[in-house]
């Protein structure tokens, strides 16, 4: 009679087989990773399946900056199943995104997984001909409507005056958070550029855009994970994690409100993005009807609201916090504004060249706390040599703007707040070549001109009328940050004191 194997025997064999399988799988993983890098950049190995994802931390740009010290300015790593290459120097940025722009201009496939499948047909996430056509239309329209011109500027200055008037309604004897006012004026500037007019502050679009951006930011931690492991989106509970039902409601409300304004576009103050798109949709040429659709039109409006409002509002928060923390810098700016502009008129963009210390301070804050510390990932359509390494085709390309802006070899003391680094001995602006807060190359931020104008006019106007103080005299200013879609200050608490002028 045959004797049945004991339970202990079966358990031991199962453990041995499982261990052998895991060891073989792990060895295969590491051999595969090392083989794939035979002509490419070096880098950390990470873990099987997960790659280096568990070690990135809450601020991946800092992790990449530390890895640069060990592996050099160009290194590779695995992010899930993706082969990623990280550029950490200005030289690598320039060689890839400027000299070899056509090879590195695409976005990775499935880079941005959206459960609604509604946010990929736009100028941020598209590649190829659709991206070129959408970008050409938006950039051309921005120039045509005169972003930076006196006409456009005068409308923004009206909004700035409303902003200043609303600040005075606050109780200025205690710390305040004026973030809602900053978001409101940023949203209305985008209304002007996109819809051709500013809207009344009680218009529901302000609340809808704010909620939409909040949903977008709240999902920012999970969506990259879905990009590296797209099969996870089929798991039960993912829609709940992404708060999909609320996002759908918000998206429906935003589309409805935008369509209402599109129907009234003939009442706009200026020609804007909405008019350019309607012309393309209503008068298609050479197959453009497949590119300029109602869905892509709305998707581009939504993504421009997100990028325009979130980045400009974030920049203003950092400016206010640093000026409160560094009163000597603030005082120098005010002295310059008083001397050049006086107190009888608004600042204009024509004053920008005549107020170099103000401009140097804004440049220094763009360098020190870059809102977009890591650029939106790229992908290369062909193998290309960058530096001493061959970058394999279809790599996941990450540009670490933080590392470029904190490169000790170029900046010397990159962690110090020092506006004077951008001024020569004659007080003229210099040393801006390695400053890339709006990225570099053909995908450089298309709203750069609008953002610079808005930030300068807001900052100069505020400092002409108010002193910005720390919330509490006996405590240092909190300059800590958190990273989601942008590098944002933890909170904005300041005191505003009306200047005696």
Automatic annotation (TrEMBL):
Gene3D superfamilies: Cytochrome P450. One of its GO terms (biological process) is organic acid metabolic process. Keywords: Coiled coil, Heme, Iron, Membrane, Metal-binding, Monooxygenase, Oxidoreductase, Transmembrane, Transmembrane helix. One of its GO terms (molecular function) is heme binding. Its cofactor is heme. GO terms for cellular component: cytoplasm. Residues 244-271 form a coiled coil. Heme binds at residue 445. The keyword Heme applies. The chain crosses the membrane at residues 14-31. The keyword Transmembrane helix applies. Belongs to the cytochrome P450 family. PANTHER family: CYTOCHROME P450 306A1, CYTOCHROME P450 508A4-RELATED. This is Cytochrome P450 3199A1.
């Amino acid at each position: 009679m045959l004797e049945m194997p004991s339970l202990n025997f079966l358990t031991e064999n199962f453990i041995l087989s499982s261990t052998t399988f895991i060891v073989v799988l792990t060895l295969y993983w590491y051999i595969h990773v090392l083989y794939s890098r035979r002509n490419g950049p070096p880098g950390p190995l990470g873990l099987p399946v997960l790659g280096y994802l568990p070690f990135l931390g809450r601020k991946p740009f800092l992790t990449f900056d530390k890895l640069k010290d060990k592996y050099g300015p160009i290194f590779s790593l695995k992010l899930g199943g993706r082969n990623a290459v990280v550029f950490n120097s200005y030289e690598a940025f320039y060689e890839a995104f400027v000299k070899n722009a056509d090879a590195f201009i695409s976005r990775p496939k499935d880079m941005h997984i959206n459960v609604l499948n509604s946010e990929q047909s736009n100028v941020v996430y598209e590649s190829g001909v659709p991206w070129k056509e959408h970008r050409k239309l938006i950039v051309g329209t921005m120039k045509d409507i005169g972003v930076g011109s006196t006409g456009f500027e005068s409308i923004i200055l009206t909004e700035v005056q409303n902003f200043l008037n609303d600040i005075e309604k606050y109780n200025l004897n205690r710390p305040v958070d004026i973030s809602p006012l900053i978001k409101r004026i940023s949203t209305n500037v985008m209304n002007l550029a996109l819809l051709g007019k500013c809207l009344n502050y009680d218009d529901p679009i302000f609340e809808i855009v704010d909620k939409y951006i909040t949903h977008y930011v709240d999902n920012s931690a999970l969506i990259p994970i879905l990009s590296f492991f797209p099969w996870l989106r089929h798991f039960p509970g993912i829609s709940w994690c992404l708060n999909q039902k609320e996002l759908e409601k918000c998206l429906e409300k935003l589309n409805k409100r935008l369509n209402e304004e599109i129907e009234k576009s003939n009442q706009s103050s200026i020609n804007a993005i909405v008019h350019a798109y309607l012309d393309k949709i209503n008068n298609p040429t050479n197959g453009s009807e497949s590119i300029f659709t109602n869905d892509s039109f709305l998707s581009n409006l939504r993504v421009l609201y997100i990028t325009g409002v979130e980045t400009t509002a974030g920049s203003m928060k950092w400016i206010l916090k640093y000026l409160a923390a560094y009163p000597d810098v603030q005082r120098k700016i005010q002295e310059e504004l008083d001397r050049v502009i006086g107190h009888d008129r608004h600042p204009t963009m024509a004053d920008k060249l005549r107020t170099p210390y103000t401009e140097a301070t804004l440049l220094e804050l763009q360098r020190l706390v870059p809102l977009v510390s890591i650029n939106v990932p790229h992908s290369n359509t062909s193998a290309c040599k960058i530096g001493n390494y061959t970058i394999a085709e279809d790599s996941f390309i990450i540009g670490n703007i933080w590392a470029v802006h904190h490169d000790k070899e170029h900046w010397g003391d990159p962690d110090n707040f020092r506006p004077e680094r951008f001024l020569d001995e004659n007080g003229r602006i210099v040393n801006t070549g390695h400053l890339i807060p709006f990225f570099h190359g053909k995908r450089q931020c298309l709203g750069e001109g609008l953002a610079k104008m808005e930030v300068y006019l807001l900052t100069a106007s505020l400092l002409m009328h108010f002193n910005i103080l720390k919330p509490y005299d006996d405590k240092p200013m909190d300059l800590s940050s958190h990273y989601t879609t942008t590098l944002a200050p933890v909170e904005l608490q300041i005191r505003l004191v009306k200047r005696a002028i």
